[in-house]
Amino acid sequence: MSDARYARDSFDVAIIGAGLSGIGAACHLQRTCPGKTFVILEARHAIGGTWDLFRYPGVRSDSDMHTLGYDFKPWLDAKAIADGPAILRYVEEAAAENGIAPHIRFGHRVTKAHWRSDQARWRLEAQTQGSSVAINANMLLMCGGYYRYDAGHMPRFAGIERFQGPVIHPQAWPEDLDYAGKRVVIIGSGATAMTLAPAMAEGGAQVTMVQRSPTYVVSRPSEDALANALRRCLPPRLAYAAARWKNIALGRWFYRLTRTRPEKVRDKLLGMVRRQLGPDYDIETHFTPRYNPWDQRLCLVPDSDLFRAINSGALEVVTDTIDGFTKRGLALGSGREVDADIIVAATGLRLQVMAGIAVSVDGRAVDFPKTYVYKGCMFSDVPNLVQTFGYVNASWTLRADLIAHYACRLLNRMDAFSARQCTPRLGESEHSMAQRPWIDGFSAGYIQRSLAELPKQGDRAPWLNVQDYAEDRKLLLDAPIDDGVLHFNDASSAKPADIAAKAA
Q1: 418: left (phi over 0), alpha (psi -120 to 50) or beta
Q2: Does residue 342 carry a pLDDT above 80?
Q3: Looking at residue 499, what is its pLDDT?
């Protein structure tokens, strides 16, 4: 590699992914570490990640935009439960307002990341236009999300090849699909199925949603009346901040209630569904899960659209097992056959650790399931790598913002130390810590299917992956960077203790 090419492809920070997390991290970096050079490597050819990839009918957020939005950019639309195109515009606006686009290299799929301690840098290998390129960076921010973009999760349904119509996964939605007047079967009971079913019914389809087991569903207005009222009388940033903190507080209060009074919350949620569907509807079969609220994510239904579709007769919910596919539709465990012209398998995502990148440190491959997570965003014995992984019980961006703030704090503290390398290290007593799953107490299938591939958390701070915004604020914004667990050094022979002493 020539000296000119090496200089052009060397940066202080490399960000993987130009979606909601990656664009947010870049904006925070420009604001808080203005002297740092950075590049965003995006495998696809567009900004937006999830919100550009998913194109199925009705695609929307299952979180309000006052918490899914960035802490630095107010959400100004009247609708707080926003659709996919509106969220994509918001991310694109954030990138444009902060001059992020020139830093993005589209069509760069990173496949390998090699750390060299003697040089204190990551060497990234990326595939682009059929060739391999190398990019060097001191710090690596992993913002590529948590699932595979090339394919969703598809169970092995018996006889799927017999069905004579199209079988579609929402992650690969065909642009020209005409479903008006068609019989559509949607397999699934999660947020995607709950979004698709009323949207396709409204688009003229006769929809049957087939679920193996029910999910907790709660209706909420798509507009936040208080947030909209505040925006009429306060400056946008102040109104946004007030609505954001209100929703954070309400979300945390409700989640704690599901942990301490699960029966009370369960009865309340089911009562709300009964009021929507009437006394004759079989709530026990179709809307009463076997688990407690927030053991899996609740499905948010804006403006009761799911219930309105059921009441109109355009949508039927069937709770049963699937024996297999037939020529005409699905054969169910009860003996019923559901006829279909189109079958949509809203069967979930496939998780992917580190965006599928093979990571090595000084020539040794990192086996992430054997690492411990540090403050929910770094990993034991892996230098200069910060990963963004949002909440499973709240808005993704709440945590993405906190992790971006922490990464900026870390970079600035390293500059103060004159350090080029920072590595979380387990203490002698911590090697025998009790191992806990990456996500504890969350039974959703997409998490359970992948726990064996994910890092572990320990039984004490900072080796925890907490799912609590207030605790994360303390851990990521308030706790000291140099805590004795995070070791600092440079690319020379200096020991971590030498760097700490110099900083003191």
Answers
A1: left
A2: yes
A3: 40
Residues 6+ apart with CB under 8 A from 494: none
Question: How far apart are the C-alpha atoms of 429 and 431, rounded to whole Å?
Answer: 6
Q: Is the peptide bond prior to 462 cis by the omega test (within 30 degrees of 0)?
A: yes
Element (H, E) at 486: strand 486-489
Nearest C-alpha neighbor of 406 from the set 359, 436, 374, 366 = 374
Q: What is the 3-state secondary structure (H, E, C) of 274-303?
A: HHHHCCCCCHHHHCCCCCCCCCCCCEEEEC
CA 443 vs. chain centroid, Å, equals 16
Residue 495: predicted pLDDT: 45
Which of the 8 DSSP states describes residue 478?
Answer: I
DSSP-derived pairing of the beta strands 109-116 and 104-106: unpaired
pLDDT number for residue 452: 80
Amino acid at 178: D
Q: What is the pLDDT of residue 108?
A: 97
Is residue 389's pLDDT more than 90?
yes
Q: Are 276 and 304 in contact (CB under 8 A)?
A: yes
pLDDT in tens, 1-38: 333 333 479 999 999 999 999 999 999 999 999 999 99
Round to whole Å and give the CA distance between 78 and 76.
7
Query: Residue 393: what pLDDT?
Result: 87
| Cβ partners under 8 Å of residue 25, min gap 6 | 15, 141, 143, 388, 400, 403, 404, 407
